[in-house]
Design goal:
Strand order of the largest sheet: 2-3-1-4
Helix content: 40-55%
Number of helices: 7
Largest sheet: 4 strands, antiparallel
Radius of gyration: 17 Å
């Protein structure tokens, strides 16, 4: 909905994915991929992308859910073309650099380990497994130490090719 009183614009691409696109061996893959979408692209580094967006008063982020994942870029109305360009660049031209993949994977592994120390997280995981059983909703959005340790760049590229395509999302 347009509100001309606000000088902001936002571009969002949301795709079917999340837990529904994973199995026990892949759990956590879509979260890892979505985090990497807002990092380096084939045209520019993550730092350059963030600096250009932030210097124009905007922001960029990714999201993940049980059924979907996405990227959002926002900025000021005069920068609409930049917002649209950056949204397309992050969705269609991610670099998935080996070093960045390794760093993000380590970060996600640390989150998985930290969740073991949070009683609420432990209880919610047990409840999800009890309620959903073998259904993908019974999987871990962040993955497990085992599933994440087996993931590499090729898995992320394959998931991206499978999910970020016409007919599987809206922009």
């Amino acid at each position: 909905l347009e509100d001309r009183r606000l000088p902001f614009v936002q571009g969002t691409g949301v795709f079917r994915g999340g837990l529904l696109a994973e199995n026990e061996m892949q759990q956590g893959l879509t979260r890892l991929m979505s985090r990497l979408l807002v990092k380096d692209t084939l045209r520019q580094s993550a730092e350059s992308l963030a600096n250009r967006i932030e210097s124009a008063g905007g922001g960029i982020g990714s999201s993940i859910g049980n059924n979907s994942f996405g990227v959002t870029v926002n900025g000021l109305r005069p920068d609409l073309e930049m917002v649209v360009d950056f949204l397309g660049e992050t969705l269609l031209e991610p670099a998935f650099l080996e070093e960045v993949v390794a760093n993000e994977k380590e970060f996600q592994l640390a989150q998985v380990k930290a969740e073991r120390d949070r009683p609420f997280s432990v209880a919610m995981k047990a409840l999800r497994k009890s309620v959903y059983g073998e259904h993908p909703y019974g999987l871990e959005v962040s993955g497990t130490e085992g599933s994440l340790s087996r993931m590499g760049r090729e898995n992320i590229v394959s998931q991206h090719e499978k999910l970020v395509r016409g007919g599987n999302g809206v922009v």
